[in-house]
Request: fold
Amino acid sequence: MIDRSEFRRTDPGWLAEAWGRARVFAVSGGRVSPLLEDPSGLPEVVPSPGGPADRVPGGGPERLFLGVDEDGTPYFAVMAEVPDMTPLREVLLDPPSALYADLALAAVALANWHESHRFHPRTGEPTLPVHAGWVRQTASGDLTWPRTNPAVLVLIHDGVAGDEGRCLLSRNVARPVNVRSVTAGFVSPGESLEGTVARESFEELGVTVTDIRYVASEGWPFADELMVGFTALADPAQPLVLDPAEIAEAEWWTRAELRASDLQLPARISISRMLIDNWLAGKLPA
Reply:
């Protein structure tokens, strides 16, 4: 993982020196470039349409300091278009390294925030990036920081081991007929993560869940979200009562049925798929 070195973000002297020995890549529209060994090649980049209006001293696109690796090498992203850029979703399917995936996730999330928060949410004043791209500031000094929207994902199952154990999968109304996934929803203000799991399970499917257990989390910069994965128990004898505005269909599947099916499950880069695969393999939180 990258050491984000937050204390360096307000040290312009160190940032200027680090830029001269950094590894850099470009980010634009949810796409990233390969890492460049030498940032001196970056004067040729073209700033992204709709990107921030300000530029670093001497010209060029805005720099986002991402951190340093275990060898002390600094990493930056620039909000710009360059050749050979790849959508982040494709990068995550087969990243060149775990470090690059970590960097790309952070860069896309930051770039998305900059492109959609060019005005202060309270005053409406224009903002410019400060703190090496991690804060935006108005002319009068008001600051705003990146926001992350927490959402829960829950694999509901019956707790039975072996092929006859069942899990509850559903299809959102916006998804194709053959798609199934776990239950999901955004955390409401003042609500705990476990409370969201229980509420969404009941609101969307009509089931009461117990034994709610945290599994893992992942940043999801495509919509500036933090996806938090859980498992929970429910009785398959409970009648399903679907929210027609959210859920088109839902069924309980045994492990044997799910393995033999031709259902389209979530992509393997997602925590939803990890929850399903772990359940199929009998790997659940103790």
Q: What stands out?
A: The chain has a mean pLDDT of 88. The domain at 149-280 is CATH 3.90.79.10 (Nucleoside Triphosphate Pyrophosphohydrolase). The CA atoms of residues 277 and 283 lie 8 Å apart.
